Model the fold of this input.
Amino acid sequence: MVCECDGDGDEEDFNVAVGYSLYAGGDGIRAIAITSRCVACGRLGYWDDWMVRGGEMHLLDLA
Done:
């Protein structure tokens, strides 16, 4: 990953976050999203998101 600010030269550091939402009643995962933030400038970057139709709770172990 490379940020437009060019970080501190050769190395760029990012924070990565994974978020999720549950179905009402907490009986399954509804959606998962992944995003990042450049440590040097604070710019947020959006990666991807997925709808999880089956609500597979084991996916939380992979996040």
